[in-house]
Write a structure and sequence with these properties.
heterodimer; A: seven-stranded mixed sheet; 0% helix; B: three-stranded antiparallel sheet
């Protein structure tokens, strides 16, 4: 059974960098055709996809967040990470990590559906 | 950008059928996926690629996709089906897109 677990600081000061890690068990992040993703949800609001990283390390980000987001893989620990810079109160949310299946789009693999999710971790941006 | 439109809320009597719509331009050309999210919990995939149910999801959950509207149908609604439901697609310009979510209330 695939399991994902988010970890990281629950409180970040404005203008600083939010850093989260997702530890995966039951599957190897360096094998198979999957994207490993971060998704967030402000209280009472809809889900927002932040970005994903493929098993070969290539990344794809939400255009609205692209300038502030970096994702990376740590295959030795079977983890992947998120860094979001210059945070403001608008970045306060529950952050989820999730695995995405792929589908083919004109011969290229693109994100399809999210089949496994972590429980989520609340990150508050406040001084 | 590609937008998905869902009704804010749907109310349904116990044992009846709930239909949750997800509107998008020519959405029939896309794979639509649906998630159920109960309060304080992570989303759970209930329908993928328009009509497919993951293992463990009851047959009462079904999906369809036509024209500009995809629909999640919940038959014989139970109290345990009360949740927020989100549709999701992949778009070539905006990548992953989620709908605004629909709150299902069982009367």
């Amino acid at each position: 059974q695939v399991q994902l677990q988010e970890s990281g600081p629950g409180l970040v000061k404005p203008s600083q960098t939010l850093s989260l890690t997702c530890t995966v068990s039951g599957a190897s992040i360096s094998s198979g055709s999957f994207y490993w993703n971060w998704i967030r949800q402000p209280a009472g609001k809809a889900l927002e996809w932040i970005g994903g990283i493929y098993t070969n390390g290539s990344t794809t980000y939400n255009p609205s967040l692209k300038s502030r987001v970096t994702m990376s893989l740590d295959t030795s620990n079977n983890e992947f990470s998120l860094k979001l810079t210059s945070v403001t109160a608008a970045d306060t949310a529950v952050y989820y990590c999730a695995r995405a299946m792929l589908t083919l789009y004109f011969g290229s693999g693109v994100l399809d559906y999210f089949d496994y999710w972590g429980h989520g971790t609340l990150v508050t941006v406040s001084s | 950008s590609y937008d998905l439109t869902q009704p804010l809320s749907v109310s349904v009597a116990l044992g009846q059928t709930a239909r949750i719509t997800c509107g998008g331009n020519s959405i029939v050309s896309k794979n639509v996926h649906w998630y159920q999210q109960k309060p304080g919990q992570a989303p759970v995939l209930v329908i993928y690629r328009d009509t497919n149910r993951p293992s463990g999801i009851p047959e009462r959950f079904s999906g369809s996709n036509s024209g500009n509207t995809a629909t999640l149908t919940i038959s014989r609604v139970q109290v345990g089906d009360e949740a927020d439901y989100y549709c999701q697609v992949w778009d070539s310009r905006t990548e992953v897109v989620f709908g605004g979510g629909t709150k299902v209330t069982v009367l």
